[in-house]
Amino acid sequence: MVIVVIIIVNTVPMEKNPDQNKDKLLEKRAELLKSEIKAKETELSDLQNQCKHLNKEIKMDDKNIAMWECIDCGKRLKYPSQNELKKWIERIRN
Ligand SMILES: [Zn+2]
Predict the structure, then answer these.
(1) What's the CA dihedral at 34, 36, 41, 44 to 10 degrees?
(2) Which of 23, 32, 36, 53 is buried deepest, with most CB atoms within 10 A?
(3) Where are the alpha helices (DSSP H) in 1-94?
């Protein structure tokens, strides 16, 4: 009798909105992916903090912002000075 009641309770919302279970599944998957991304970002940040950033170059990011970037760990370090930027532009042109 208890089992029958549980089945009825569980199936009622499904009949009202058949996509609800699918939405919940999608939401859970998205939450899982977000937490995985956050964990990986922390892992990358830890790794970048161990790096001494000895090899660096000026690189543009996807927003076309030029910054010094570590070749080894990929960390964005600092903005180049006017002089560094000028030299970099000249080197790209040639
Ligand atoms: Zn580095």
Answers:
(1) -170
(2) 53
(3) 2-16, 20-50, 82-93
83 CA to middle of ligand 1, Å? 23
How close is the Cα of 76 to the center of ligand 1, in Å?
9
Ligand 1 centroid to Cα of residue 89, in Å, is 23
> Does pTM surpass 0.70?
no
How close is the Cα of 51 to the center of ligand 1, in Å? 4
CA of residue 43 to ligand 1 center, whole Å: 14
